[in-house]
Design brief:
The chain is mainly alpha-helical. Helices cover 81% and strands 0% of the residues. The protein has helices spanning 3-18, 20-27, 33-48, 55-60, 69-95, 101-124, 127-153. Helix 2 (20-27) runs parallel beside helix 7 (127-153), helix 3 packs across helix 5 (69-95) and helix 6 packs antiparallel against helix 7. The radius of gyration is 18 Å and the shape is globular.
Length: 154
């Protein structure tokens, strides 16, 4: 296995984990950093290089060093379970009318802004601008989260 390919993929994982917006989203999600890292490795490794599709290789891609296949698979299963539970929670709240559209509007708007900004940055190739935009979106996300937390407390 080419060490350079592994290092490049791990660098990509680090960039995703250290992205300011991703950090904020992760801190407010129900995934741990390790679960998110494992999920990223599992989902994207096979697209990065065909050799990465083997589970032994995936277990070696973790940033803190190789873990056993069993540990990797347990962490992946925990991540998937948490993601599925989050989706079911949103569906349940929507189904019972608790999560009406007015409460979701700030998040839908922010999601659309994020998608538009990221598409434009990728099209322009202006990655310096990404850092600036990520900061703005991070602040908007924190505002939206704080706004909804204050509403719940009142």
């Amino acid at each position: 296995m080419n060490k350079k390919i592994i290092e490049e993929f791990q660098e990509w994982i680090k960039q995703n984990l250290n992205d300011p917006l991703a950090k904020t989203l992760l801190e407010n999600s129900n995934l741990t950093k390790t679960q998110f890292e494992t999920f990223l490795i599992d989902i994207f490794s096979k697209h990065y290089h065909s050799v990465f599709s083997k589970s032994e290789i995936k277990a070696a891609l973790r940033l803190k060093g190789k873990v056993s296949r069993g540990a990797f698979n347990r962490t992946k299963a925990q991540a998937i379970k948490n993601i599925i539970r989050a989706i079911y929670t949103i569906l349940l709240l929507g189904y019972t009318g608790i999560f009406d559209s007015s409460k979701l509007d700030p998040f839908i708007e922010l999601s659309q802004k994020l998608d538009d900004y990221i598409k434009n940055i990728k099209k322009e190739g202006n990655y310096e601008k990404y850092s600036w935009i990520a900061k703005i979106l991070e602040e908007e996300l924190k505002e939206a989260l704080n706004f909804n937390n204050k509403k719940r407390k009142n």
